[in-house]
Structures are given as structure tokens and as C-alpha cells.
Design a protein that fits this description.
This protein folds into two domains: 176 residues, no CATH class; 127 residues, 3-Layer(aba) Sandwich (Rossmann fold). The chain has 13 helices and nine strands. Strands 1, 2, 3, 4, 5, 6, 7, 8 and 9 form a nine-stranded mixed beta sheet that branches. The N terminus is likely disordered.
């Protein structure tokens, strides 16, 4: 198992909300616009990705009529029901169409720049939440991040410590914590556990707290949950000021959990440094960090686009290899959750962009400059991650790699996620 690593379009046609039940099955026909012929020995998959990049180049050159023509070709030759390349191209052409639509109808945020975000109705929000839970089940990336972060927290806490406090940034459904709670309940005597969970929806925070409290009760674990509402969870100033409301008790051991969160604060790097310094001043025993291993924070659109195509091509290939073609869960994940991410990276600009992923080396520099030191992840954490892959995702394509005392999980030779521990 160990390996080594070398929102909707508003273009000419309105794209409906991406619900799997609403998507009309795709059928090939003899009247499709055909892509330009292949050159040399280029594979069809590589050729289609090259056409995607050509479309992005035309947009970056403001040649919008030519871009629309090429996007029409790609749209006619891609499908949410095809192979991994067809599905990838389908998603990216929708995102390119959305970017083109901003040339005529520009949506702006208060901080400037185009944004693909909109207020979700109850049905859309439910679909997004459901797609996240499906993503957690059918891919190893989130579970790997949670499992490894949990192990880093457990190992940083002394066996005899009787009071644990975890601050979890963007707790969402809290799916990370039941395994850790179970491990704590098996300690003798079991410690008390307090979780401060942040989010921007009070109802989701309340439901998450109720679920965790019921689970803790079933384990006989003394537990408290404190919701911490962030008006703007993507604003580092808002996140930093919220730390002032966190109650710290002298007898508690503090752990901070930043799993797939810090990248959202990159729109203001100075304030992000301030946020990290505020965490450091709280003297946590451990800070767990997980992030995508990709650079989607390039200010130049074309560079960002090429990086995104490469990253998500590996994600789609991994889904292709591990799930049957008829998987509705995969369709939901790709057409709802991954679509939301891709549209943000491709179509949004300026302060409107949320998915600002950067590579581990950037996070390493930022964390060290904020006073943190890297804590090596343990051999036991490694064996746990390998076991997770072997038992639940038995494809040889998933590879686990160790670099700078941190773990990287990827597909084939492409690292996709990193997890690290800091003090």
C-alpha cells in the first residue's frame, strides 16, 4: 500500500440545480459536433484535457466567441454518465461556461471579484450536505484526514490527562469525532471531553452537538459541546475574533483541529498569519492540519485552471477505479460537491474565491513563521491509515507517502491530500 510520488451556468442555456434525479440520461447520437482530430499518438483522454486547456486559454485571451465554440464541442462530447474523462470534461465545461457568463452578468461580493456562491434553499442545502456525507463514504480522503488527525490528537494528550478541550474549525456534521470519543472512553479513567465547534449555520451546529452528546452518553463519556457561530467562516478576521469567545480552563489540555479549513482563509494572508498567531498564543498541545495537496490559489486564471484539471483528473480516475459505473453516490458527489469546488476555482475571481488550496510546503512555511513546529506522525498512525485503505478502498491506485514527518495520500503518482501535526 505504500507508494512513492514522483453554482449553475448562466450561459446561453440555463443549467438546473445539480440533483442526480434531475439529470437526463446522456445518449450519444450521430449529430454531435466532433472534436478536432487526434494528433500523433495522443490518447483521447489527453486530447480532451488539452481541448479544455485550449478553451481556458481562449478565455484568458478574451477571445470569447472562439471559447464558446470550443466549449460547445466539449459539451457535446462529454457527459456526467461517461468515463472519468467525459465526466471531468463535463464538469469543467460547465465551470468555463459560468465564467463566460460573468462577462455579461457580473456577480460581486463585498470584497470584490466575481462569485459563484448563492443562497441555497432548503432542498439545495440538503443535497449539498448529503453529497458531503457521500464523499466521506466513497473516497478515503476525508476519512484518512480525520483518522490521522484524531491519532495525532490522541498521541499528544497524556494518558492521565483528565480534561480535554478540542476547538474544531468548521465542524459541519462532526463525523470526525465519534471514533476519537470511543478511543477516549476506553482510557482508564476516561477523560472529560469538551468540543467547541465553529460554523455559520446555527441549526447545523445544534444538530451536530445533539448527535455528539447522544453518542458520548452511550459511551458513558462526560461531554460538553459549545457551538461557536462565525458570521463569515471564510474571513480570517472573523475566525480570529471568535477565538476571544472561547472559554479556556486551566486544567484542560487544548487541541485545535483545522481539517480542510485553513485554505479558505487565504484571501487575506496577513490576517491568516494573525489567526495562526492567536491560536499559538492559546498554547494548544497539538494543532492538526489537513489540506488538499494542490495549488488552486494562483492569481493567474490559466495557471489555476491547468492545476485544477490535473488535480481533479486524478480524483475522477480514483472514483472510476473504485465505484461501479451506475453508482448514484458517485454521481451525487461529482455533480454536487466536486462541481461546487470546480466552479469556485474556475469561475470565481478576487474576493469571491473560496477554494484557495495551496501545497504543503506553503503551509509549512506559514505555520513555522507563526511559531509552530512540526510534530512527527507516528508509525501507529501510518499503520492505521494503511489499514483504512486496505479494508475499505482495496485499490492499488491509492498511495500513501511520508514527507517532512507528514502524510500524503494520493492516486497513482499524484499526491492529493496532506495531514500534518503541529505544536
Amino acid at each position: 500500500m505504500l507508494g512513492s510520488f514522483g453554482s449553475s451556468s448562466h450561459d446561453e442555456e440555463e443549467e438546473p440545480t445539480a440533483s442526480p434525479s434531475d439529470i437526463v440520461p446522456y445518449h450519444h447520437n450521430h449529430h454531435q459536433i466532433q472534436p478536432p482530430p487526434l494528433r500523433g499518438f495522443t490518447s483521447p483522454a489527453t486530447h480532451m484535457r488539452q481541448l479544455l486547456i485550449s478553451s481556458a486559454e481562449l478565455i484568458s485571451q478574451s477571445d470569447f466567441p472562439a471559447a464558446r465554440r470550443l466549449i460547445a464541442i466539449l459539451s457535446a462530447n462529454s457527459s456526467p454518465y461517461g468515463d472519468s474523462t467525459e465526466r471531468l470534461v463535463h464538469l469543467f465545461t460547465k465551470a468555463l461556461s459560468l465564467r463566460l457568463s460573468f462577462n455579461t452578468t457580473v456577480t460581486t461580493t463585498t470584497s470584490g471579484g466575481s462569485s459563484v456562491s448563492h443562497v441555497l434553499n432548503t432542498t439545495e442545502e440538503s443535497l449539498v450536505q448529503s453529497s458531503y456525507l457521500s464523499l466521506n463514504q466513497i473516497t478515503p480522503f476525508i476519512r484518512f484526514s480525520h483518522l490521522t488527525a484524531n491519532q495525532a490528537i490522541l498521541e499528544a494528550i497524556d494518558q492521565g490527562q483528565q480534561a480535554i478541550h478540542i476547538i474544531d474549525f468548521d465542524i459541519m456534521h462532526g463525523v470526525q469525532w465519534p471514533p476519537l470519543m470511543q478511543a477516549m472512553a476506553e482510557r482508564h479513567p476516561p477523560p472529560t471531553l469538551r468540543i467547541t465547534g465553529t460554523g455559520n449555520d446555527p441549526n447545523t451546529l445544534r444538530r451536530t452537538g445533539d448527535r455528539l452528546a447522544k453518542f458520548a452518553h452511550s459511551l458513558g463519556l462526560i461531554f460538553q459541546f459549545h457551538p461557536l457561530l462565525l458570521i463569515d467562516r471564510d474571513d480570517p478576521a472573523s475566525a480570529a475574533s471568535a477565538l476571544s469567545a472561547v472559554l479556556l480552563l486551566p486544567d484542560e489540555t487544548l487541541a485545535v483541529n483545522c481539517v480542510l479549513y485553513l485554505h479558505r482563509l487565504l484571501r487575506d494572508r496577513d490576517r491568516l498569519h494573525y489567526f495562526l498567531s492567536r491560536i499559538k498564543a492559546m498554547n494548544p498541545r497539538v494543532v492538526a492540519v489537513a489540506e488538499r495537496e494542490a495549488n488552486h490559489n494562483q492569481p493567474i486564471f490559466l495557471q489555476r485552471f491547468v492545476e485544477a484539471v490535473e488535480h481533479y483528473a486524478a480524483v475522477f480516475d480514483s472514483l472510476e477505479a473504485t465505484l461501479p459505473p451506475s453508482s448514484r453516490e458517485r454521481l451525487t458527489v461529482e455533480q454536487v460537491w466536486l462541481r461546487k469546488e470546480v466552479e469556485d476555482i474556475v469561475a470565481a475571481e478576487g474576493g469571491g474565491r473560496r477554494e484557495r488550496h495551496e501545497r504543503f510546503r506553503s503551509w509549512e512555511v506559514m505555520l513555522r513563521s507563526s511559531g509552530f513546529s512540526n510534530v512527527p506522525l507516528s508509525p501507529f498512525a501510518l499503520s492505521q491509515a494503511k489499514l483504512l485503505l486496505r479494508l475499505h478502498y482495496p485499490s492499488e491506485g491509492y498511495q500513501l507517502h511520508i514527507l517532512n514527518d507528514s502524510f500524503f495520500l494520493g492516486w497513482q503518482n499524484q499526491p492529493l491530500f496532506s495531514v500534518s501535526s503541529w505544536h
